[in-house]
Structure formats: C-alpha cells, structure tokens
Structure prediction request, 469 residues.
Amino acid sequence: MPRFRPLPVLVALLLPLALAPARAPAQAAKAAPARVLGTTSDEARSRFTAGLDDACNGFDARAAERLEEALAADPKYGLARALHAVVAPGLTAEQRAAELDRAVAEAAAGPPVEVLEVLAWRSDDSAERRALYRSLTELAPAEPRFALALAALETEPDALVQALKAVAQRFADFAPARNRLAYALRDAGDRDAAMHEAQEYVRLAPGHPHSHASYAELLQWSKRYDEALEHYQKSLELAPHYARAYAGIAEVRQLAGRYAEARAAWQQAIDRSPAASRWDLAVRSAGSHLLEGNRKPALAALVEAARLADAAANRSQAGQAHALMAVVEGSGGDWRALDADLEQATRIAPDDPRVTGLAAIAHAGAGHVAEARAAARFLASAAARGSADLKSFSHVVNAIVAAAADDVPTAQTELKYRVSDDAIGKAFVAEALRRAGDREEARALRDEILGGPEVSFLGDVARMRVKKL
Prediction:
C-alpha cells in the first residue's frame, strides 16, 4: 500500500512560493538550472553530481556507490541521503523510509528546492508527487530532471508520450529524456520513433553504458540480435561490472534458442548484481530450461531463486519463487505438488498480492477455475489501492481466469489494459480459442507468442503452453 503522509508544515510554507504565477517567458529564459547547494563539501557535491547522473541514466548500482562516497564526505548531506535511499539495492522498505525521513530533516538546512525534491522522492502518493514536481518546475524552470519527473507521472499512454516529447524538445541535450521517451514510444507501439529516440540517447550519452544497453534492447525487440549484442558489449567496455548488459546478452541468446549460452550469461549477471537483484535473474534463467522442455531443472533453478531471496531477506520474492514453482506444476498436471508449493508460498509471504496472483495463474493452469477466481478477486482488491504495475498484473490475471472459464471476450477486454509482457494471458486465450474450435485464430495467437521479443519467466511458461496448439 502506498506510504501516504500529509505534507509536512515545512512544505505547506514552501508551496505558496512554488505555486506562485509562472515567471514571464523572459524571466524563465534567464533562470539557471537548480544548483546543488545543500553541502559545503566540494567532494560531496562532486560525488553527488556523478551519482545523480547515473541515477538519471538507470545505473542504480553505481549511483548508490557514488552517493555513499558523497555521504562519506558529508554525512549530513540530505539530498545525497534521499537519493541513496531511492536507488540503493538491498534496503528494506522500513530502512528506505527511515533514511528518507532523516534526509528531510537534513535537507531542511538547505535551499527550498532541495527540500521539495527530497519530499518528492519520499512520497509514494502520485497526487502529492505531482504537486511537488509541479512546484519544482516553477522554482527551477531550467532544471530538466524536474520537468522529466513531472512528465513521467502521466499514466495514460498517449498523454505520457506527448509530455515526454515536450520535455525532449525543450531540453534537447538532456539525454535521459530521450531514453524515457524511447520506451514510452515502444510501449505505445511506435517502434520506428522509439528506435530514433534510442539512437539520440546514444548520441547524447555515448560514454554511458546505459545508453548502449537501452539501444540494444530496442534492437533486440526488432530482432536485430547481432547489432544488439554489439551494443551490449559496448556497455561492458564502458562498465565491465554492468549487470544489465550481461542480462541483455542472456536475453538475446535465449531468444535465439542458444539456451546453454543464455544460462552462462544469466549467471554472469547474477555474479555481478547486488543481492537484492539476483532473485529476478535466477527466475529468468529458469525459463531457459522450460523452453528446452525440461521441467525438473527449471524447478531446481526456482529453488535456487528462493534461496537467493532468502539470503537477501526478501520474503515477497521467496514466496513468489514458490508460487512460480506452482505455476510450473499446474501446467504439468502435478496438482499435489502445486498445492504444496502454494502452501509454502503463502506461509512465507502471507497476503502478498503478487503471490496471490501467481496462485491464480497456477490454479487456472491446472483447471481449478473456482480457486483461480477467488485468488484473482483478492489480487484485484489489493491492486485497487496499489501501484500501476500491480493493477496491470491484476488485469492479466483476470484475463487468465476468464480464459480458463472459456470466456474469451472478457479475457480479451482485460488484456487491453496491459501494455507489454502479456504473453501468459494471450496463451490462455489461445488455449480457450482452441477448445472452442477456432484453430486458425488460436494458431495465429500462438505464433505471436512464440515470436515475441519479451523475455520473462511467465512469458516462457506461455511459450511452453502454446507450442502444441
């Protein structure tokens, strides 16, 4: 559930200034980007600036290291503490909250713009964040990261694209805006425009590993695998410990059917990732076994994923690993093992909505429609007050349950709410179409799933399910 807090008294005092009528165009044109003033240490300021650049460009692990260096130079630097709390892997929710609370108090000694930015990072409420970033864009109209953050809060796809385009046009040299716009365009289905923005991102930030990794991913989605590998390798030349590049190489190998090579790259990514990120990589590695038709090693890989989650003290991830085992067992008809895995999952992470959603998928795969429907209702209730990603996942689960009950129209309506990574939902729809005797449409959907560019464990389950349609 979002950690909503009323705006502190300090913000109530600052907002009237921030929300004053906008400067005249001539005044706005003269405004300088927001300066980092909340520290008197040149070293802390330098390290913070480097960390901020990495955070804006999606290299959180290195950003965290640089922010730790900033805090070593100035232990009371609130802005650095707040950003570190946002990007540092391995922190629990309670630790992040405590660090952000401490950062608010520390930032209060600095200028208002820094206090507002810390509060924006601290907030989990979208309306509150929108108000704070709107205030920041008024206080510092020439600071591109504030404009980008405000634009990125748009939830409707077309509105998001238009808002990001406006930022990219206004701040033509701000590379992170190109990256965010590229992905928004991809999700909106405009692959050519997305590729252009990814190329612009590389042009503007040729020395950052993330620009090459993002461009590689767009190339990968266009099935230009050799070119994608070249840019993933370029990322590694710039940052040999950059785990995302290894994961990208693994995805390309997996899409090309070179599963043993993919697993080797997954392991390289795991070895170079912080503990908090290893679970997801191990889960995706497990999918390579499914694509080879080998359930037992896939289950063994999920057991390893659960172990990694335990090592990182992440009960949600550990519960999800066991629920994913149930998804595999349900697809294979081993209902006794399915029940045992779900019992373990709910013991580890009781009332976790993602675990419950996976339980719905597992039951639907085994033909247990009543149990799947009950789990889907619980997820929908949690999603109503949760994140946009959880809401999206809930729609996919609703589609799966409807398809398992042979209600194809409802399933197809639910899938319209999902932008990407909906292969598992489409797989259940394809199976329902096949049961209804619509073989042509079922096979067309099967071919779409098998040829899709997404690499995820549930996507691999989807491919496994539709191969024989």
User: Anything to note?
Assistant: DSSP finds 27 helices and no strands in the chain. The radius of gyration is 23 Å.
